[in-house]
Amino acid sequence: MTRRGKKARPAPERKKALLHRLIEKRNPLALRKARGPFDIVGDVHGCLDELLALMQTMGYRVEREGKEFAVTPPDGRTLAFVGDLVDRGPAAPGVLRLAMGMARAGTALCVAGNRDAELVRVLRGGAARVTRGMARTLDQLAAEPASFCAAVLDFLHDLPSHLVLDEGRLVIAHAGLKEALQGRSSAAARAFALHGDVTGEKDAAGLPLRRAWAAGYRGKALVVHGHTPVGAPMWLNNTINIDTGCAYGGHLTALRYPERVTASMPAEAIYYPPRRPFPPNPTLHAKRK
Ligand SMILES: [Mn+2]
Predict the structure, then answer these.
(1) How far is CA 30 from the centre of its chain?
(2) Ligand 1 centre and the CA of 116: distance in Å?
(3) In this structure, which residues have their CB less than 5 angstroms from ion ligand 1?
(4) In degrees to the nearest 10, what's the CA dihedral of 186, 188, 189, 191?
(5) Cβ 248 vs Cβ 195: under 8 Å
(6) Which fold has domain 34-288?
(7) How far is the CA of 66 from the centre of ligand 1 (A)?
(8) pLDDT digits (tens, 9 = 90+) for 166-209
């Protein structure tokens, strides 16, 4: 699975070409002129059934072709993922197949989530430890052909840290992004977009403390993000958090743009125990009684 690691060190010219390709692929401004309309999906975390159900409510037609998916979006719409496709949930390979197939077909965009970047590290053997949620994704990938795992590694590795869309009116970044870093390809922009505005300290549960960057956000671009699960989609200034904790038994949420309306699909189960207290999903609660 560590295909790149087994290769001989590339010659300088080859290395330069690879670097250029990566900068191009990860360029957050590459789609600046894309107007959408977009359906921006929050942290999926391997919740394939909820993703398919949510897409269906938004008018996407999905046909299965063996393990692959053939997707017809409604009215020229484009699906866009805020990242964290993997980790924790029951069907990461299926989610990856759907996202990668749609990306190839030009019907979906995706930015990197911190857990997607972590999976890249794990697959390359560079992670110090593997969390329980990621071990679940690895078990699921172990049942897939090596060629698929190699394609996953390439796909996740090449994802941009964030995307500036609609002539600068829309920014998609996994953990959000302050205005000064929007459109930048720097390491600082990538760190912020994947992990948020971390202080370097940890809370009582051992999770990194983050500054509430959105509270002071005054940018002109609407920033759509996930990363920190909330009970319901949360607007704050010109930002919205659409991570409604599907893997924790919450919902999977999408923001329709430019309409600025959300669509949510309740989780079918609690797939992973939350570390921070998480608001319960009323539908799931009713079902379990
Ligand atoms: Mn995340």
Answers:
(1) 18
(2) 8
(3) 84, 113-114, 227
(4) 120
(5) no
(6) Purple Acid Phosphatase; chain A, domain 2 (3.60.21)
(7) 30
(8) 999 999 999 999 999 999 999 999 999 999 987 778 877 777 77
